[in-house]
Each structure stands twice: as C-alpha cells, then as structure tokens.
Amino acid sequence: MSASITLIGNLGKAPETRTTDKGTFIASFSMASNTVRKTNDGPVEKTNWFRVIAFGKQAQTLAKFVDKGTRLCVVGTLSFNPWLDRNGTPQAGADIVLQEFQFLPRARRAESGSEDTGGPVPTSVVSEVSDQVAAF
Predict the structure, then answer these.
(1) How many other CB atoms sit within 10 Å of the CB of residue 86?
(2) For 13, what's the count of Cα atoms within 13 Å in the CB-facing half-sphere?
C-alpha cells in the first residue's frame, strides 16, 4: 500500500533532467505550496517545499513546457528516502513520484485582482498529456 498525495503549487526552478543507463528519461523539480494558518496575531503563511520526480513521456513533457513559476497540480505516491548528512546523522526525505499532472493558471495577483495565466498551454501539450492519461 502506498500513500497518495495531491499537490497544487509552483515550480521553484526549471526541472533537472537525466537519462538512466537503460534509457528512461527522468525529470525532477521542486514545488512550493503555501498554507495559511490563522493565529491571534493574524494569518501566518508558510511555504512547504516538495520534490517531484517524473519518468518517461511525462518527464519529457514537463521538461519541455515548465519552468520556474509554472503552476501545476500533481498527483503521485510518496517515496521515503533515508540518507546521511555531512555529520553522518541519519535524515529522511520524501519525494513525490508523479502519476499524473495538470497545468494550472497562475494564482490571482492580490494587488490587481486579475489572473495571470502565464499564456496558453500549447495544443501539443494537451494532446501529449491526454495520450499519457489514456495509457494509465
């Protein structure tokens, strides 16, 4: 059994890409998601960072069409990875292994009240994503 997670957020920078020895294309990127908590002193906003890893055609599509600031909805499974820091102290990290994604318009800008969509998503992306979803 695996833990599923849905995340809406913005990319912190362009995806890092690589190809495995067996030819699998991989794209990994960080996503920021903000939460707001009400306190006695007013609302407090916190930014949480998540690492997302995509494989194959999804990775190729993301590498081609996303960049810093791109807003996405991702659905994936959590993968926990233990590691040692510089001092040899055990640490743990969690990655989201991508299952599906959707391009989203950028959030509304508070000062103007208008929505910045970041431009239209090319038709080729929509069909690539549709083909990937149909393959599930």
Answers:
(1) 5
(2) 4
Domain 4-135 -> CATH class: mainly beta
Exposed e or buried b per residue across 46-55, where buried means at least 16 C-beta atoms within 10 angstroms of its C-beta: eeeebebbbe
- The residues that bridge with 33 in the sheet, in sequence order, are 48
Q: What is the pLDDT of residues 99-122, one digit of tens each?
A: 999 999 987 655 545 444 444 444
Q: How far apart (Å, rounded) are the C-alpha atoms in residues 20 and 28?
A: 13
Contacts with 12 (C-beta within 8 Å, 6 or more apart), sequence order: 29, 30, 31, 32, 49, 68
Q: Which pLDDT tens digit goes with each residue over 56-70?
A: 999 999 999 999 999
pTM of structure = 0.72
List C-alpha distances in Å: 127 to 1, 34, 123, 134: 31, 30, 6, 10
Spans of the chain, pLDDT less than 70: 1, 108-136
Select from 61, 55, 70 the least CA-distant residue to 11: 70
Give yes or no for a contact between 31 and 9, defined as CB atoms under 8 angstroms apart. yes
